[in-house]
Amino acid sequence: MINYIWFGLIFLGLLVSLITGKGGDISSSIVNSADNTVKLIIGLVGVMCFWCGVMKVAEKSGLTEKLAKLMRPILKILFKDAAKDEKALGAIVMNLTANMMGLSNAATPFGIKAMEEMDRLNPKKGRASDDMALFLVMNAACIQLVPSTVMSIRAACNSQSPGIIIIPAIISTATAAVVGIICCKILQRYF
User: What are the Nucleoside transporter/FeoB GTPase Gate domain coordinates in residue numbering (predicted)?
Assistant: First the structure.
Protein backbone atom coordinates (compact mmCIF):
# COMPACT_ATOMS: atom_id res chain seq x y z
CA MET A 1 0.00 0.00 0.00
CA ILE A 2 2.77 2.43 0.89
CA ASN A 3 4.31 1.89 -2.56
CA TYR A 4 1.11 3.11 -4.19
CA ILE A 5 1.04 6.16 -1.95
CA TRP A 6 4.65 7.05 -2.77
CA PHE A 7 4.05 6.47 -6.46
CA GLY A 8 0.96 8.69 -6.31
CA LEU A 9 2.85 11.48 -4.55
CA ILE A 10 5.75 11.38 -6.98
CA PHE A 11 3.49 11.14 -10.03
CA LEU A 12 1.28 13.98 -8.80
CA GLY A 13 4.33 16.15 -8.07
CA LEU A 14 5.81 15.54 -11.51
CA LEU A 15 2.44 16.19 -13.18
CA VAL A 16 1.98 19.49 -11.34
CA SER A 17 5.55 20.55 -12.13
CA LEU A 18 5.01 19.88 -15.84
CA ILE A 19 1.67 21.72 -15.88
CA THR A 20 3.10 24.76 -14.07
CA GLY A 21 6.26 24.77 -16.17
CA LYS A 22 8.57 24.01 -13.23
CA GLY A 23 9.96 20.75 -14.65
CA GLY A 24 13.49 22.16 -14.80
CA ASP A 25 13.32 23.17 -11.13
CA ILE A 26 12.20 19.67 -10.17
CA SER A 27 15.01 17.95 -12.08
CA SER A 28 17.65 20.30 -10.63
CA SER A 29 16.23 19.70 -7.13
CA ILE A 30 16.45 15.93 -7.66
CA VAL A 31 20.08 16.19 -8.78
CA ASN A 32 20.99 18.56 -5.90
CA SER A 33 19.33 16.39 -3.27
CA ALA A 34 21.09 13.30 -4.59
CA ASP A 35 24.41 15.17 -4.45
CA ASN A 36 23.72 16.38 -0.89
CA THR A 37 22.73 12.87 0.18
CA VAL A 38 25.99 11.37 -1.09
CA LYS A 39 28.02 14.10 0.67
CA LEU A 40 26.14 13.49 3.94
CA ILE A 41 26.66 9.71 3.75
CA ILE A 42 30.38 10.11 3.07
CA GLY A 43 30.62 12.52 6.00
CA LEU A 44 28.78 10.06 8.25
CA VAL A 45 31.01 7.10 7.39
CA GLY A 46 34.09 8.50 9.13
CA VAL A 47 32.25 9.60 12.25
CA MET A 48 30.32 6.32 12.49
CA CYS A 49 33.59 4.39 12.16
CA PHE A 50 34.97 6.45 15.03
CA TRP A 51 31.97 5.71 17.27
CA CYS A 52 32.00 2.02 16.34
CA GLY A 53 35.67 2.00 17.37
CA VAL A 54 34.81 3.70 20.66
CA MET A 55 32.13 1.04 21.26
CA LYS A 56 34.67 -1.70 20.50
CA VAL A 57 37.09 -0.17 23.00
CA ALA A 58 34.28 0.05 25.57
CA GLU A 59 33.43 -3.58 24.90
CA LYS A 60 37.06 -4.79 25.14
CA SER A 61 37.72 -2.72 28.28
CA GLY A 62 34.71 -4.24 30.01
CA LEU A 63 32.67 -1.02 30.18
CA THR A 64 29.66 -2.56 28.40
CA GLU A 65 29.80 -5.60 30.70
CA LYS A 66 29.83 -3.31 33.76
CA LEU A 67 26.86 -1.42 32.34
CA ALA A 68 25.12 -4.74 31.73
CA LYS A 69 25.75 -5.80 35.35
CA LEU A 70 24.21 -2.56 36.55
CA MET A 71 21.13 -3.13 34.38
CA ARG A 72 20.50 -6.79 35.27
CA PRO A 73 18.84 -6.21 38.69
CA ILE A 74 16.52 -3.57 37.23
CA LEU A 75 15.62 -5.74 34.24
CA LYS A 76 14.90 -8.73 36.48
CA ILE A 77 12.23 -6.62 38.17
CA LEU A 78 10.73 -5.37 34.90
CA PHE A 79 10.65 -8.63 32.94
CA LYS A 80 8.73 -11.38 34.71
CA ASP A 81 9.33 -14.34 32.37
CA ALA A 82 12.51 -13.31 30.56
CA ALA A 83 14.24 -12.63 33.89
CA LYS A 84 14.11 -16.36 34.64
CA ASP A 85 15.99 -17.25 31.44
CA GLU A 86 19.65 -16.26 31.22
CA LYS A 87 19.78 -16.35 27.39
CA ALA A 88 16.79 -14.04 26.99
CA LEU A 89 17.98 -11.65 29.68
CA GLY A 90 21.50 -11.60 28.21
CA ALA A 91 20.21 -10.67 24.75
CA ILE A 92 17.97 -7.97 26.25
CA VAL A 93 20.89 -6.52 28.22
CA MET A 94 23.20 -6.48 25.19
CA ASN A 95 20.55 -4.84 23.00
CA LEU A 96 19.77 -2.12 25.52
CA THR A 97 23.48 -1.54 26.23
CA ALA A 98 24.26 -1.05 22.53
CA ASN A 99 21.26 1.27 22.21
CA MET A 100 22.41 3.27 25.23
CA MET A 101 25.75 3.81 23.53
CA GLY A 102 23.90 5.07 20.45
CA LEU A 103 24.80 2.15 18.21
CA SER A 104 21.43 1.03 16.95
CA ASN A 105 23.02 -0.89 14.05
CA ALA A 106 24.99 -3.00 16.53
CA ALA A 107 21.90 -3.42 18.72
CA THR A 108 19.68 -4.88 15.99
CA PRO A 109 21.07 -8.46 16.04
CA PHE A 110 20.76 -8.54 19.84
CA GLY A 111 17.19 -7.24 19.60
CA ILE A 112 16.26 -9.96 17.13
CA LYS A 113 17.91 -12.57 19.37
CA ALA A 114 16.07 -11.21 22.43
CA MET A 115 12.72 -11.45 20.65
CA GLU A 116 13.49 -15.01 19.51
CA GLU A 117 14.41 -16.01 23.06
CA MET A 118 11.28 -14.41 24.52
CA ASP A 119 9.16 -16.08 21.82
CA ARG A 120 10.68 -19.41 22.87
CA LEU A 121 9.41 -18.71 26.40
CA ASN A 122 6.04 -17.44 25.20
CA PRO A 123 3.17 -19.88 25.91
CA LYS A 124 0.90 -18.14 23.35
CA LYS A 125 2.74 -18.51 20.03
CA GLY A 126 1.86 -15.92 17.42
CA ARG A 127 0.94 -13.35 20.06
CA ALA A 128 3.35 -10.95 21.73
CA SER A 129 3.85 -11.55 25.43
CA ASP A 130 3.95 -8.76 28.00
CA ASP A 131 7.74 -9.07 28.12
CA MET A 132 7.97 -8.77 24.34
CA ALA A 133 5.80 -5.64 24.31
CA LEU A 134 7.82 -4.10 27.15
CA PHE A 135 11.09 -4.90 25.38
CA LEU A 136 9.83 -3.31 22.18
CA VAL A 137 8.91 -0.13 24.08
CA MET A 138 12.26 -0.08 25.90
CA ASN A 139 14.09 -0.68 22.63
CA ALA A 140 12.25 2.15 20.88
CA ALA A 141 12.56 4.59 23.80
CA CYS A 142 15.97 3.55 25.09
CA ILE A 143 18.02 5.95 27.19
CA GLN A 144 20.80 7.39 25.01
CA LEU A 145 23.96 7.96 27.02
CA VAL A 146 25.95 8.69 23.88
CA PRO A 147 23.71 9.67 20.94
CA SER A 148 26.45 8.86 18.45
CA THR A 149 24.26 8.72 15.33
CA VAL A 150 22.79 12.19 15.92
CA MET A 151 26.22 13.54 16.84
CA SER A 152 27.59 12.04 13.62
CA ILE A 153 24.90 13.71 11.54
CA ARG A 154 25.53 17.03 13.29
CA ALA A 155 29.28 16.70 12.69
CA ALA A 156 28.73 15.79 9.02
CA CYS A 157 26.61 18.93 8.64
CA ASN A 158 29.45 21.08 10.05
CA SER A 159 27.90 21.76 13.46
CA GLN A 160 30.05 23.96 15.71
CA SER A 161 29.55 21.60 18.68
CA PRO A 162 27.90 18.31 17.74
CA GLY A 163 28.17 16.96 21.29
CA ILE A 164 26.09 19.71 22.88
CA ILE A 165 23.02 17.48 22.58
CA ILE A 166 24.26 14.84 25.04
CA ILE A 167 22.57 16.21 28.18
CA PRO A 168 19.24 17.05 26.45
CA ALA A 169 19.30 13.62 24.79
CA ILE A 170 19.81 11.85 28.12
CA ILE A 171 16.96 13.82 29.73
CA SER A 172 14.50 13.36 26.86
CA THR A 173 15.25 9.68 26.25
CA ALA A 174 15.15 8.89 29.98
CA THR A 175 11.76 10.59 30.21
CA ALA A 176 10.50 8.65 27.18
CA ALA A 177 11.79 5.36 28.61
CA VAL A 178 10.20 5.90 32.03
CA VAL A 179 6.85 6.96 30.53
CA GLY A 180 6.93 3.99 28.14
CA ILE A 181 7.65 1.52 30.94
CA ILE A 182 4.92 2.98 33.15
CA CYS A 183 2.38 2.84 30.30
CA CYS A 184 3.35 -0.76 29.54
CA LYS A 185 2.99 -1.83 33.15
CA ILE A 186 -0.40 -0.13 33.45
CA LEU A 187 -1.67 -1.67 30.19
CA GLN A 188 -0.40 -5.13 31.23
CA ARG A 189 -2.95 -5.13 34.04
CA TYR A 190 -5.89 -4.62 31.67
CA PHE A 191 -4.90 -6.44 28.49
Answer: 42-153
Q: Answer for the pair 97, 71: CB distance below 8 angstroms, yes or no.
A: yes
Side-chain-side CA neighbours of residue 143 (13 Å): 14
Domains in the chain: how many in total? 1
Contact status, residue 177 vs residue 142, Cβ threshold 8 Å: yes
Residues 55, 182: Cα–Cα separation, whole Å: 30
* Distance between CA atoms of residues 100 and 144, nearest Å: 4
- Residue ranges making up the domain that contains 159: 36-190
Does residue 13 lie within any of the structural domains? Answer: no
pTM reported for the whole predicted model: 0.68
pLDDT band at 31 (very low <50, low <70, confident <90, very high): confident
For residue 11, being part of any structural domain is answered with no
Q: Is residue 25 part of a domain?
A: no
- What mean pLDDT comes out for the span 4-9? 92
Write the pLDDT tens digit of every residue in 60-113. 887 767 777 788 888 888 998 888 887 888 889 888 888 887 776 778 888 999
Residue 31 lies in a domain: no
Return d(Cα 100, Cα 138) in angstroms, integer.
11
